[in-house]
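sorry to bug you again but im stuck and you know this stuff better than me. theres a chain ive been looking at and ive put its sequence and its fold in token form underneath. id like you to explain what the token line says about the fold, in plain words if possible. anything you notice is useful, everything is just below.
___
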Amino acid sequence: MDNNVLITGGSGFIGGFLVEEAIKRRYNVFVTIRKTTNLLKLRDKNIRFIEIDFNNYKDIKKKLSIAPSFKYIIHNAGITKAFKKKEYFEVNYENTKRFLNAIEETKRTPCKFIYMGSLAAYGPGDKRTTKPVYKTSIPKPVTEYGRSKLAAEKYIIEESKLPYLIFSPTAVYGPGEKDLFTTIKLINSGIDFKIGLKQQYFTFVYVKDLVKLVFDAMESSIVNKEYFVSDGNLYTKDEFSRIIKKTLGAKALSVKVPVWFAIIVAAISEAIAGFSGKQSILNVEKIAELSARNLNCDIEDLKKDFNYQPEYDLYKGMIETVKWYKKEGWLK
């Protein structure tokens, strides 16, 4: 148990970086997978896999009961897109609830349970100001995704007996990320597509800064606290576009559309996706987040508790990200 860490959602964007960091820090790394999990990002010979069906409580209990004990558990599994709204709660909330209950019932309590939440659980800040959202703020999620993540956070805090830390990052980007990549790809093709006609303020965090923070915090003595995570900077919509254009060395025509029009386009895109069986990158849920006026969040506790000092601002992180996209052939 002394050096065992279990990571769920290890095949995803953030999950892959969590696994890399765990290996770098010489943990015995265990990753939960499904029968359909793509293992392309998990080819290190030192990774051990545990196949678990998180929809099945008996299966979770069975697999945990025969697995070794874990010093740390990082619960990163979840979905950010769904065909039906109820899927968000089934995966992000119900699966988390089953997992926590199974851990307690099988007496596999770790020294620390890390939950990867989201700023979406609290929703945007005051649209009239740039005042940040605080963990003491009243949550006002604007999407089903956000509401499902909030429900999971509440269950961990109010019902679970596990020692926990909850990290709720703002928009996470980096090599391999696909949502923000859509914007980068459009700008690279010459179109700077913006939703909403009014000024917006965004926050970001580079994936490497996020995972480093998670492990530093995990190895600390601090438990039972929640944190927002960003790089500490606030970016306007125009600054965001300029940074991407600069890193790409591209020029793009600015195209601004009102929120109502974007919602109609997103609804049509969702309907087409429903027939094709493929997830739509542009959906009504996403528009609610992209059109938010103020996505600032407070990270003072991170600085105080963990001496959090992000290495990357958006420009530095985007240079590394774009370089990766080009190297992998995602951009030309």
User: Anything to note?
Assistant: The longest helix spans residues 86-105. The domain at 4-177+205-231+296-312 is CATH 3.40.50.720 (Rossmann fold). Residues 52 and 60 are 6 Å apart (CA to CA).
